[in-house]
Recover the amino acids of this structure.
């Protein structure tokens, strides 16, 4: 299973776009397939103190833009949640006690793409790959894997534009033993030459695989256009050239730089008490150097007119398209109306584009959840001009025609039901807390998600649709001769 496939499996976080469920099984399945396609294409040592993750200074960027600050959450709501937060020598710890047999620990590593340069892109991905799967100085890889398998435990990683994670999953009786191995990963991964070359080869193959798959690579084309001039234009998986240049010394030095308490946040969800988590932290994370990390901030995404980036592949049976547009960040008041708006659009696209006109088998709209956020429109179509025009007509209809308040309320309730279903697992709850901590104004904001959605009005949906769904940057793979580019760039 590749890293991107693992991310889709639900074990890790959610920066995944969310969509409003529909009322029929066929429609749910169709939209689920469309969303999964979009998610696939949008997704890529010792304890010596070293606060810098690399000896190469990240390139100069425009001045960072201040991030909106959401309203503070009522202390009574926080208290009632049972979630605890404390600090241990500069390391922030969040514990959500839950019943059940599974325990998840997510160690959040701040920085994302701000940690690297174009020359070192892919170093964080490769370092975490090797650290999490290549054994430690105390436990060689085969013994390490055998011990994990004997307990049914897992240790993995994920990298993304805003932050990365090392994740531990165990059942409650094996929490202590699994954490011991997790602690070894944090403090003393082996970084053997054999495992470095194995993981390097896999990472390069993943990079090549993205380029070979049009349903993956179309997202890269759209990102290169939309994020041109911004750190998000780069990929955490790196390029073939950058990954080939990474040496063992670079990986070890970089990893040591990541493992500083000021850069890390630990989120734990499971049937544990605070004392148990504190004991685990004292034996491992608390021994890491404190460091002096401060998030450098991100510039705004430059506003640019709509554009189409193409790859000519006339032999393909269909044309792959995804369009990106600037959207409110999770900390912005417009985020929740925009979330509802894109969900409603996905529902309407399915009805108008797929069901009524049979123009496609995969169509969707959605909203990401990143510091510099974006929304998307996605479709595969034999007749791209007609299809995109129908999609734009639905966008305009949502922006200009009043919604029935009763029907709107029913759709929002369905959306909330799906939200509860997505948050049922221990892993999903850990991911929600971690993502909110890094991009949503703090884990406390997850406690008022429902209230924020319930505040959204039909007028809010009309306003944000008109305000944000514009200047769309399309990625297009297929036969450009079948598309009227003036239509694609008309919004």
């Amino acid at each position: 299973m590749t890293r991107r496939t693992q991310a889709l499996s639900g074990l890790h976080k959610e920066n995944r776009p969310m969509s409003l469920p529909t009322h029929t099984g066929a429609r749910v399945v169709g939209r689920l397939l469309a969303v999964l396609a979009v998610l696939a294409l949008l997704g890529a040592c010792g304890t010596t103190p070293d606060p810098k993750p690399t000896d190469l200074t990240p390139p100069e960027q425009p001045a960072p833009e201040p991030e909106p600050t959401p309203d503070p959450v009522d202390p009574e709501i926080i208290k009632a949640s049972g979630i605890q937060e404390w600090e241990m020598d500069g390391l922030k710890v969040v514990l959500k006690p839950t019943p059940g047999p599974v325990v998840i620990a997510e160690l959040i590593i701040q920085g994302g793409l701000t940690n690297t340069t174009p020359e070192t892109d892919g170093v964080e991905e490769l370092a975490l790959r090797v650290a999490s799967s290549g054994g430690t100085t105390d436990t060689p890889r085969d013994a390490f894997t055998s011990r994990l398998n004997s307990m049914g435990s897992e240790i993995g990683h994920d990298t993304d534009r805003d932050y990365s994670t090392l994740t531990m999953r165990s059942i409650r009786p094996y929490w202590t033993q699994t954490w011991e191995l997790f602690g070894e990963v944090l403090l003393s991964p082996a970084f053997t030459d054999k495992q470095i070359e194995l993981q390097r080869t896999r990472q390069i193959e993943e990079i090549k695989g993205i380029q070979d798959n049009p349903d993956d690579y179309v997202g890269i084309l759209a990102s290169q256009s939309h994020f041109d001039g911004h750190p998000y234009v780069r990929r955490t998986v790196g390029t073939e050239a950058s990954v080939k240049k990474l040496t063992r010394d670079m990986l070890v030095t970089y990893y040591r730089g990541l493992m500083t308490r000021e850069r890390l946040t630990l989120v734990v969800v499971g049937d544990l008490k605070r004392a148990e988590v504190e004991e685990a932290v004292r034996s491992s994370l608390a021994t890491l150097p404190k460091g002096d990390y401060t998030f450098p901030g991100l510039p705004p995404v430059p506003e640019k007119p709509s554009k189409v980036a193409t790859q000519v592949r006339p032999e393909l049976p269909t044309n792959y398209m995804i369009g990106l547009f600037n959207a409110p960040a999770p900390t912005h008041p417009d985020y929740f109306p925009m979330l509802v708006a894109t969900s409603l659009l996905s529902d309407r696209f399915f009805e108008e584009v797929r069901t009524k006109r049979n123009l496609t088998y995969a169509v969707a709209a959605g909203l990401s959840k990143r510091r510099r956020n974006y929304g998307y429109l996605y479709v595969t179509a034999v007749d791209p001009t007609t299809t995109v025009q129908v999609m734009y007509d639905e966008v305009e209809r949502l922006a200009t025609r009043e919604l029935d308040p009763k029907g709107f309320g029913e759709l929002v309730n369905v959306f909330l039901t799906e939200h509860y279903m997505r948050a049922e697992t221990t892993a999903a709850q850990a991911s929600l807390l971690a993502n909110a901590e890094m991009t949503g104004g703090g884990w406390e904001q997850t406690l008022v998600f429902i209230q924020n959605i319930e505040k959204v009005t039909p007028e809010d949906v009309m306003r944000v649709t008109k305000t944000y769904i514009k200047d769309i940057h399309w990625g297009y793979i297929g036969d450009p001769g079948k598309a009227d580019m003036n239509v694609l760039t008309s919004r």
The chain has two domains: 3-42+300-488, 75-287. The longest helix spans residues 335-356. The domain at 3-42+300-488 is CATH 3.30.830.10 (Cytochrome Bc1 Complex; Chain A, domain 1).
